[in-house]
């Protein structure tokens, strides 16, 4: 049997308010191999102890990577140690997020202006990951990788100049894998949402970076809406593809066939119905400890996208999800409706 390609060949992007633990558990029911990312976790909040619950995850979510936001090397190192102790095997630094909240803390995309600081941050994180990982796993082998997610530039920067300089710097800091969101962030005047849509995508630039830095593992991100496009980009030489919104909103198209089409698995794709069945015991456990149905089912609205009955699935699940007392019977009813419509 051929070896399965590395998980980074396809990943679901970190997305605040979306890729929480319930979302990742759902995505894992759809693809065994795709790499999943947490939402961004602010390093300072972790170190102060306030955000530790954001690191909670089910072991079956693996492979799962945690993303940190920060720009203070000591703080990022301490946060990395906490993440490794929580079982994460990849810690990613966010150098791509343009939101005001993030800019005010001086992290995210604004760091594209300060590669030397990024380098210090990454070096500190690497050292922390190695020391902590060695403690966990013994002599020298850590298996904990530090990676970075960046833009091609910000504001008036010239991407053709800034991006290679940035990659050179992070490579010198010992980083082997970089995710490039293939558009600029405009830090003034655009909302975070507009910053994911308005600055034009530049895939050729990212492809040229792979040729210029053959030893770097380069993952492309931004605007990828189908596995066909993902496969084209892989065939052109990129090491991996990260998909955000399309994977979240249309997981049936992106995640259900991913193991077969991206990782070469010969196992038949799971059906959305089988995914609902696989989620049932997880949801039951969540309800039993006082959790709300909607916290999980809000991530399942797109499961049947494109199928007859998809709208009523979405409607009845959202209605049920907004009721604090809703239980599994609401999920079962929504499923019966969609089965009747098919
Ligand atoms: C709701 C939302 C939240 C996001 N939060 C993060 C985040 O926490 N960290 C990050 O690096 N990028 C974040 N992003 C950006 C995505 O990771 C990704 O780079 C972007 O959506 C482009 O990929 P796509 O076109 O495949 O969605 C977010 C995007 C969305 C839509």
UniProtKB/TrEMBL annotation:
Boundaries of every DUS-like FMN-binding domain copy: 12-334
Record's keyword terms, sorted: Flavoprotein, FMN, NADP, Nucleotide-binding, Oxidoreductase, RNA-binding, tRNA processing, tRNA-binding
One Gene Ontology term of the molecular function aspect: FMN binding
Residue positions of the active site: 97
Record CDD domains: DUS_like_FMN (cd02801)
Site residues by UniProt (Interacts with tRNA): 94, 193, 196, 311, 314
Entry binding sites for FMN: 67, 149, 181, 221-223, 244-245
HAMAP family: DusA_subfam (MF_02041)
Designated name of the protein: tRNA-dihydrouridine(20/20a) synthase
Organism: Haematobacter massiliensis
């Amino acid at each position: 049997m051929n070896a399965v390609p590395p998980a980074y060949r396809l990943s679901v992007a970190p997305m605040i308010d979306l890729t929480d633990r319930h979302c990742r558990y759902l995505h894992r029911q759809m693809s065994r191999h795709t790499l999943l990312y947490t939402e961004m976790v602010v390093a300072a909040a972790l170190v102060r102890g306030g955000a530790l619950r954001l690191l909670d995850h089910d072991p079956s979510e693996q492979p799962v990577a945690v993303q940190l936001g920060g720009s203070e090397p000591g703080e990022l190192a301490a946060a990395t140690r906490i993440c490794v102790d929580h079982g994460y095997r990849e810690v990613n630094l966010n150098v791509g997020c343009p939101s005001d909240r993030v800019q005010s803390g001086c992290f995210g995309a604004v760091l594209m202006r300060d590669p030397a600081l990024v380098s210090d941050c990454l070096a500190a994180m690497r050292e922390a990951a190695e020391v902590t990982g060695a403690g966990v796993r013994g002599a020298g082998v850590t298996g904990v990788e530090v990676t970075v997610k960046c833009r091609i530039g910000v504001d008036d920067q010239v991407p053709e100049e800034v991006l290679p300089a940035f990659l050179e710097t992070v490579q010198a800091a010992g980083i082997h894998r970089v995710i490039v969101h293939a558009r600029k962030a405009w830090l003034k005047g655009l909302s975070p949402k507009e910053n994911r849509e308005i600055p034009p995508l530049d895939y050729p630039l990212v492809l040229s970076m792979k040729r210029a830095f053959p030893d770097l593992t380069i993952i492309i991100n931004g605007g990828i809406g189908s596995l066909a496009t993902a496969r084209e980009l892989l065939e052109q030489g990129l090491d991996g593809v990260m998909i955000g919104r399309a994977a979240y909103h249309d997981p049936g198209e992106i995640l259900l066939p991913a193991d077969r089409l991206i990782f070469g698995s010969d196992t038949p794709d799971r059906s959305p119905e089988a995914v609902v069945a696989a989620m049932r015991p997880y949801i039951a456990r969540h309800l039993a400890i006082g959790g709300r149905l909607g916290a999980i089912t809000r991530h399942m609205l797109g499961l049947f996208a494109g199928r007859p009955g998809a709208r009523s699935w979405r409607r009845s699940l959202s209605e049920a999800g907004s009721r604090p007392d809703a239980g599994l019977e609401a999920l079962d009813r929504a499923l019966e409706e969609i089965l009747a419509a098919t």
